[in-house]
Amino acid sequence: MITSDQLHNVLEREQALRGYLDIDGKTIQLEEEELRTHDPGFWEDAKRAEVQMKKVKELKKWIELYNEVHAAAEELQLAYDYVKEGIVSEEEVDEAYGKAIQLVESLEFRNMLRQEADQMSCVLKINSGAGGTESQDWASMLLRMYTRWAESNGYKISVANYQEGDEAGIKTATLNIEGDYAYGYLKGENGVHRLVRVSPYNAQGKRMTSFASVFVTPLVDDTIEVKIDQAAISWDTFRSGGAGGQNVNKVESGVRLRYQFKDPYTGEEEEILIENTETRDQPKNRENAMRQLRSILYDKELQHRMEEQAKVEAGKKKIEWGSQIRSYVFDDRRVKDHRTNYQTSDVNGVMDGKIDDFIKAYLMEFGAEESAEK
């Protein structure tokens, strides 16, 4: 059975969460925000109403999650007291402890996601590195990994762009992963992913190293204001490829958006290129491409804020967005994150989408820094 120290640990962490999350303040704020929705003209401005309802929903969620922790901690306290009287068994106390500690740790973890963009959906793009078929195959394996992760966590997935490799795998793919906190959980996946394996594409059976890059940006909605210079946009159309369907390669439904971006802070210029083949409807693909552009521009603003904060707090450890973040060494049965040093021998599990431990290790190490910057 659990010890009194374990019981006190849960109770202390539950109270600490009440303070960290300012549950009392959130409860008062929720009442005030809900009163605003009762205004007779509330729904006349749909955009403003949507922003307000998101605020209400977010406050409710934090309060509900804390209340679950509070209830579990109270149940644990009662079970611990009643076991002495023989009303509950030691096994029931341990079961109550397991439930309480799981809820406490889950809320502590979620508390790391307090940045403005963390609660948003995300766009995840994978590009194969140099190396032809080997790297393209590796990129497709990463695509499968993230798809499996998203499916297992109940996120909605849509493929915004998909370009097959020359012989196998993919050259590039872009996923929209929609649901609460998709960006917060996946933002640490930005960077270069390195594969080491005995290549099935090498006749000599040599050990090969391949690279693929992953880019994750928040998927913004209409409630987020993003400035776009319409004069900097140009469009091309092309025939979408893919398997099946009589429209394939006959209708130019694919769109290519080029945006001449000028950094308002540095004056540097670059071309942002977005391709969308998500549907057979060209206007819909244009709309989706514009949504991705807004996400990219929003992300650039976020990165500027992070860089400015980094200048102020130069001593803090920072993650370079283009750096190599993780190695997957198949024949040594090892996947290692180079930022946190977390590693596992469950290579098959990781490639099947079991990356939560990597996500948690990243957020536990760097999430507190990011939250402090807010």
TrEMBL record:
<dbReference type="InterPro" id="IPR045853">
    <property type="entry name" value="Pep_chain_release_fac_I_sf"/>
</dbReference>
<dbReference type="InterPro" id="IPR004374">
    <property type="entry name" value="PrfB"/>
</dbReference>
<feature type="domain" description="Prokaryotic-type class I peptide chain release factors">
    <location>
        <begin position="239"/>
        <end position="255"/>
    </location>
</feature>
<dbReference type="Pfam" id="PF03462">
    <property type="entry name" value="PCRF"/>
</dbReference>
<dbReference type="Pfam" id="PF00472">
    <property type="entry name" value="RF-1"/>
</dbReference>
<dbReference type="InterPro" id="IPR005139">
    <property type="entry name" value="PCRF"/>
</dbReference>
<dbReference type="InterPro" id="IPR000352">
    <property type="entry name" value="Pep_chain_release_fac_I"/>
</dbReference>
<keyword id="KW-0963">Cytoplasm</keyword>
<comment type="function">
    <text>Peptide chain release factor 2 directs the termination of translation in response to the peptide chain termination codons UGA and UAA.</text>
</comment>
<comment type="similarity">
    <text>Belongs to the prokaryotic/mitochondrial release factor family.</text>
</comment>
<feature type="modified residue" description="N5-methylglutamine">
    <location>
        <position position="246"/>
    </location>
</feature>
<keyword id="KW-0488">Methylation</keyword>
<protein>
    <recommendedName>
        <fullName>Peptide chain release factor 2</fullName>
    </recommendedName>
</protein>
<keyword id="KW-0648">Protein biosynthesis</keyword>
